[in-house]
Amino acid sequence: MKLHVLTVALMGAVALSACQNDATTDTAATDAQTAPMADDAPATDAATPTGDYAAEAPAMDTAASGTLVEVASGSPDHTTVVTAVQAAGLVDTLNGAGPFTVFAPTNAAFDKLPAGTVDGLLKPEAKDDLSGVLTYHVVSGNVDAATLTQQITDGGGSATLTTVQGGTLTARADGGNVTLTDAKGNTATVTTADLKGSNGVIHVIDTVLMP
């Protein structure tokens, strides 16, 4: 019974619509015929490419205008490492052509070291030791996040990075993060990746690594 009532109602609506259409003027009919169909209007938007098209779009240029030292100098969280680089006489080296990959500890990372460690390393007589610690955080080449992740994958879950100091770091993927383990078993987590400079890339880490 409900179906019969619904059918009658629909037929009535169709009949009413037909009467209204007959009552329109010829001008309105002409305009209606020349107006774009509603189905045609959104065709362009609906056909907007996705997926592969997005990969082909130009990437945003995130490269900084300065060298790695200049990029680090602009960060309020890296004043300690910048001071250390200056004290070790490495400014000219890290301003060179490179490219270099720098794992830069934050000020908070240096604060985690035993009391007096930083002050001791900054003394003139400890320049060689300081240089060794800093260059242990530098890898030759432009090892961005994608490259490092691929190296870890190719290595079956870990990758060995040879530092400018001559020692090695072990990189691993851990719960969506990349970690670095030094020769003494200390582990640092990459907290910010791919801060690009004109001569390489910086990855921010939360722990100072020791050779």
Structure description:
The protein has helices spanning 2-23, 26-34, 43-46, 52-56, 68-73, 79-87, 91-94, 107-111, 117-121, 127-135, 145-154, and strands spanning 100-105, 138-140, 158-162, 168-174, 177-181, 187-197, 200-205. The chain is α+β, with helices and mostly antiparallel strands. It has 2 domains: 2-56, no CATH class; 68-205, FAS1 domain. It has a 7-stranded mixed sheet. The longest helix is centred in the N-terminal third of the chain and has 22 residues, at 2-23. The radius of gyration is 32 Å and the shape is globular. The chain starts with a helix and ends in a 6-residue tail after the last strand.
Query: Tally the helices: what do you get?
Result: 11
CATH topology of the largest domain: FAS1 domain
Q: Got a strand count?
A: 7
* Proportion of residues in extended strands: 15-25%
Q: What would CATH call the class of the largest domain?
A: Mainly Beta
Low-confidence stretches: 1-63
Structural class of the secondary structure composition?
A: alpha+beta
Going across the major beta sheet, what is the strand order?
2-1-7-6-5-4-3
Using the 3D structure, state the CATH architecture of the largest domain: Roll
In total, the number of domains comes to 2
Our measurement of the CA-to-CA distance between the termini, rounded to an integer number of angstroms, reads: 87 Å
Tertiary shape:
globular
Name the CATH superfamily classification of the largest domain: FAS1 domain
Q: What level of helicity do the residues show?
A: 40-55%
Signal peptide: 1-17
Protein name: Fasciclin domain-containing protein
Pfam families: Fasciclin
Domain FAS1: 65-209
